[in-house]
UniProtKB/TrEMBL annotation:
Transmembrane segments: none annotated. This is Acyl-ACP desaturase. Residues 29-159 form the Ferritin-like diiron domain. It is an enzyme of class 1 (oxidoreductase). Keywords: Oxidoreductase, Signal. Residues 1-22 form the signal peptide. GO terms for molecular function: stearoyl-[ACP] desaturase activity. Its EC number is 1.14.19.2. It comes from Sphingomonas floccifaciens. It comes from the Bacteria. The keyword Transferase does not apply.
Length: 159
């Protein structure tokens, strides 16, 4: 499937035409581990770029630069809705609700009890006390997300 995406950015003079080929459906063999790892890494980068560019757009807008804001928003849209999306399709991200909830719980649990706890300790030791406090607060949020996913999983029919 081919679709053409025209992104107008930073005024009429700058127009990107991006030709997009969707990920092949039903590949005949599983992806290599290295390809899966690269897709995961690329998706992290695309997701980060999306949110970063949206912040940059807000800053440009606040600074009275609407054309620059438009450029950042247009790029952010491509990162999320073209690049991340195509990579997620190639990876076949997500499957059943049960598996998705288990995956989400795993990530939230790790952030809740390991990652943010360690980040907070390191920030505290480095003298960045406000950041340490923020990490501890976010750790609590992640625990809430974990609990909500766990409750949602308990309500699903068993596989
Ligand atoms: Fe990208
Ligand atoms: Fe979370």
């Amino acid at each position: 499937m081919m679709k053409s995406l025209i992104v107008a950015a930073a005024g009429a003079a700058t127009i990107f035409a991006v030709s997009v080929t969707a990920a092949p459906s039903a590949p005949t063999r599983p992806l290599a581990a290295s390809t899966r790892a690269n897709l995961e890494a690329a998706m992290h980068g695309e997701a980060y770029a999306n949110l970063k560019y949206l912040r940059y757009a807000d800053q440009a807008q606040a600074a009275g630069k609407p054309e620059l804001a438009k450029l950042f928003r247009a790029s952010a849209n491509v990162e999320a809705n073209e690049h991340f999306d195509r990579e997620a399709q190639a990876l076949r991200l997500g499957s059943s609700n049960n598996v998705n909830l288990e995956d989400a719980m795993k990530g939230e649990h790790y952030e809740n009890v390991t990652m943010y706890v360690n980040f907070a300790k390191e920030a505290e030791a480095a003298g960045d006390k406000k950041v340490a406090q923020m990490f501890r607060q976010i750790a609590v949020d992640e625990g809430t997300h974990y609990a909500a996913y766990k409750a949602a999983l308990a309500k699903l029919p068993r596989r």
